[in-house]
Amino acid sequence: xxxxxxxxxxxxxxxxxxxxxxxxxxxxxxxxxxxxxxxxxxxxxxxxxxxxxxxxxx
Length: 58
Hints:
Layout: H1 25-29, E1 34-39, E2 42-48, E3 54-57
Antiparallel strand pairs: 1-2, 2-3
């Protein structure tokens, strides 16, 4: 289990070489239920539902 207050990993770790960084939903949402992800010129909405599921929409 990871510490939700720990910063996201940057660069290779002791795990598999080249593994992508991992973020907990708590790190992404920071107490909110909605975040916006900007990718190029598009914005995506990531929402946490009442059923604790994630929904990503463009």
